[in-house]
Amino acid sequence: MLDKIHLYTVRTLIGITVVGCATLGFQIYNYYKYVRPVRLEEKRLMREEEIALEQSEKELELLRRQREAEEMTKY
Which portions of this protein are annotated as coiled-coil regions (predicted)? Predict the structure, then answer.
């Protein structure tokens, strides 16, 4: 009687382990297939926006300096 209970308990735990490993594998697959590429794309777009913002700030600073230089040459 105890042997049967032990046998079914072991089989149940093995089944739970297999299902848990399959679920974990599926979650890992979904992460690398769907979530990670989206996050990498978002990071890339954010970097591009930061670079564009820095470039526009530099251009504005250059224009400001040019105007200041023009103002100084007028006098």
Answer: 39-73
**Spatial separation of the C-alpha atoms in residues 8 and 40, rounded to whole Å:** 46
Cα atoms in the 13 Å half-sphere on the side-chain side of 69: 6
Distance, in Å, from the CA atom of 21 to the CA atom of 29, rounded to the nearest integer, reads 12
* Helices and strands counted in the chain (H then E): 2, 0
Report residue 31 as tokens.
Answer: 């992460």
71: which 2 tokens?
Answer: 């103002």
**pLDDT single digits (tens) 21-58:** 999 999 999 999 999 999 999 999 999 999 999 999 99
Q: What is the pTM of this model?
A: 0.60
Q: Is the pLDDT of residue 20 over 90?
A: yes
